[in-house]
Write a structure and sequence with these properties.
The complex is a heterodimer of chains A (309) and B (321).
Chain A: H1 4-48, H2 55-71, H3 77-100, H4 108-130, E1 135-136, E2 146-149, E3 152-155, H5 156-178, H6 180-190, H7 192-197, H8 202-228, E4 230-231, H9 237-250, H10 255-275, H11 281-295
Antiparallel strand pairs in A: 1-4, 2-3
Chain B: H1 2-30, H2 36-61, H3 69-86, H4 91-113, H5 118-137, H6 157-175, H7 178-188, H8 190-195, H9 200-226, H10 236-249, H11 254-270, H12 275-292, H13 305-311
Helix pairs in contact in B: 2-6, 2-9, 2-10, 2-11, 3-4, 3-5, 3-9, 4-9, 6-9, 7-9, 10-11, 10-12
The chains are: A mainly alpha (309), B mainly alpha (321).
Chain lengths: 309, 321
């Protein structure tokens, strides 16, 4: 009795540690998905100061394109993802041209209302065309295997999601930091008029930003399809809002902020549903948002800027 | 002299129009000429008018984009349903309590969030609306996700008519008072308003709380007509519905909000069996109105004596107020 007590205590501690690490891994792959969506929000906000409400729905379209690309065209998951990314890049550019460009000089509220309109439009045109039911992601897309290492169960799903996200983020960093397009994007987000005077084509740069942001969302969409195994026309709303919270958490408009914010959101969310109540999972994200907005509205990485008259 | 006498005449005409409208509809209902289907739509119409007019006070006149109006409606609906069913309160008491509860909720949510600007505020209010819904879903006392069933049907035409009238009167008189001018100044230029000595936060919270209060009233009426309330009914799509009415009618036009609420209710009724098409139309309304007429159909104009006066060729009529 006296011997076994410390043993069970130590055993319990190990079990708690393993459980915690498990949650962390689950959170990391969910967070990687959020980070990819948050990047799109942040890039668009950084360049035209618009919360692209439709971003989550672009992700949904990406998930569907991936779905059909696998189930109808019989592509493998990587090809499907690239296919979805290209399609959504085009969709993002078209949306920007039709809906957001005419409003570039109007109030931000007007642009936000339009974005809500675009979001509703994408959701319900999908319901109209494909029906409101959810579909199961094709099984041949991904054969799930679980690796058991030191009491942890790691699925190749998690590995795939995290690896893809890392590769995509490295490419994104390269584009933004090392290419001429990236330089133009940074210039436009810093000062649109000055960039125009320096010979940067502002319209083209904004289009490219939308294309890149939307393709990231599409990649995230395919990942969510693999991760949750289902797609439905309203699937973009909640991850979209959570990714938005992630973007705000990291400091909206700041690219590393979106990555960190996304990962944090994913980890926090799995912790809340793992240790607390999963019923409050969705409310929790909004709670985080409101807390940041009240305590440090510029986000973790943001700098305070005074209001100009 | 003639100009001075015209005001009471107009007031009398307005009262007569309202009395006639009330009596005719009441007669139609009591004789059964207005069947169940039309009564449901009439009720929705009245509730939508209250919601649109009250949201317009926040979004239109104060210029603070709130996307959480359905949350306040939910507070009102639940409070009133619990009071009439579990506490046996009369309808009037539960209506007042519902409105006050929603107003207090609006105040509590408004104080921290209204420090935020523009799009941040929109997302924060959307978040609060969703939090209210999720919390309701998790309270067993009010039925959790299944909601409350078997609420007595007490929202009759006199209640609805009276509530709409009350909402419109309060909002119109508020907007035309010195408070209203302060509220509009916040919309026009917050920094300038602050420099003129206006406590902008106070007026924003005031408008927000009053808007929430009437949303609570609308919720109470809703609960006591449709027999059942569920948290799911009050999700953010409901808030977007109300936003569509406000945007279509004109940000800052009460009559515009009323007209748009009537129009949207009719549109909803016509497209009842095609919900997807209805939402696509809503989406297109939002996008097209914002691109081609960002001030909404009515802008900040009111449909009133001035416009009719102009139609009748009266050139220099006295101001409406």
């Amino acid at each position: 009795m006296s011997l076994s007590l410390p043993f069970t205590k130590a055993h319990k501690e190990v079990a708690i540690l393993i459980e915690f690490t498990q949650q962390l891994i689950n959170g990391l792959s969910l967070g990687a998905i959020y980070a990819l969506i948050a990047l799109g929000y942040t890039m668009v906000y950084g360049i035209i100061m618009l919360i692209n409400f439709a971003h989550g729905d672009i992700m949904m379209v990406g998930a569907y394109v991936g779905f059909f690309s696998i189930s109808v065209l019989g592509n493998n998951i990587v090809v499907a993802m690239v296919f979805a990314m290209v399609t959504c890049a085009a969709l993002g550019v078209v949306i920007e041209k039709i809906a957001y460009r005419p409003l570039r000089n109007s109030t931000r509220i007007a642009a936000l209302i339009t974005a809500i309109g675009v979001s509703l439009f994408l959701e319900y045109i999908t319901i109209f065309l494909l029906g409101p039911n959810q579909r199961v992601y094709p099984a041949q897309a991904f054969t799930v295997t679980n690796y058991h290492i030191a009491g942890l169960s790691i699925s190749n799903k998690d590995v795939f999601v995290i690896a893809c996200a890392v590769v995509i983020m490295i490419i994104l960093q390269y584009i933004i930091k090392r290419t001429k397009t990236g330089k133009a994007m940074r210039a436009v987000s810093l000062d649109k008029d000055a960039a125009l005077l320096m010979g940067v084509s502002v319209d083209r740069t904004i289009s490219i930003t939308f294309a890149i942001g939307s393709s990231l969302a599409a990649a995230a969409g395919v990942m969510i399809g693999v991760y949750y195994n289902t797609v439905n026309p309203l699937m973009g709303i909640i991850p979209g809002l959570k990714a938005f919270v992630a973007a705000v958490l990291g400091g909206i408009g700041i690219i590393p902020g979106a990555m960190v914010g996304g990962l944090l959101m994913g980890i926090l969310e799995t912790m809340v549903s793992g240790y607390g109540s999963s019923l409050y999972r969705d409310a929790f994200a909004f709670g985080v948002l409101i807390l940041i907005l009240l305590i440090k509205p510029t986000g973790l990485f943001g700098k305070n800027t005074g209001e100009k008259v | 002299m003639q100009k001075m006498n015209i005001k009471p005449v107009r007031f009398a005409v307005e009262v007569i129009i309202l009395v006639v409208l009330f009596t005719v509809v009441q007669y139609l209902i009591s004789t059964g000429l207005l069947n169940q289907y039309y009564q449901i739509n009439l009720t929705s119409m009245c509730i939508n008018i209250i919601l649109a007019v009250s949201l317009n006070l926040i979004n239109g006149f104060t210029g603070q984009l709130s996307l959480g109006h359905a949350g306040f409606m939910a507070v009102g609906a639940y409070v009133s349903a619990v009071l009439t069913m579990n506490a046996g309160m009369p309808f009037l008491v539960s209506c007042i309590a519902a409105a006050l509860a929603a107003g207090v909720a609006g105040f509590l949510i408004g104080v921290p969030t209204l420090r935020l600007k523009g799009d941040y505020l929109a997302i924060a209010t959307l978040g609060f609306g969703e939090i209210i819904r999720v919390v309701l879903q998790n309270i067993e006392y009010v039925g959790g996700p299944a909601g409350i069933l078997g609420i007595p049907k007490l929202s009759t035409w006199p209640w609805l008519f009276g509530s709409v009238l009350l909402t419109v009167l309060v909002v119109v008189n508020l907007v035309n008072s010195s408070y209203g001018r302060a509220i509009v100044s916040v919309r026009e230029d917050e920094i300038a308003a602050e420099l003129m000595g206006i406590n902008t936060t106070r007026y924003k919270v005031l408008a927000f709380s009053i808007g929430a209060l009437f949303a609570g009233l609308a919720g109470a009426l809703y609960a006591h007509f449709f027999y059942v309330i569920k948290p799911e009914t009050f999700n953010f799509l409901k808030s977007f519905d109300i936003l569509v009415m406000v945007v279509l009618g004109g940000l800052g036009s009460t009559t515009g909000a009323v007209i748009a609420a009537i129009f949207i209710t009719v549109l909803t009724a016509v497209l009842q069996s095609f919900p997807a098409i209805r939402m696509i139309l809503y989406a297109l309304i939002l996008i097209i109105v914002m691109i081609y007429r960002p001030q909404g159909l009515m802008g900040n104009k009111e449909l009133g004596w001035k416009i009719f006066g102009r139609l009748w060729g009266e050139k220099h009529g006295p101001a409406e107020y």
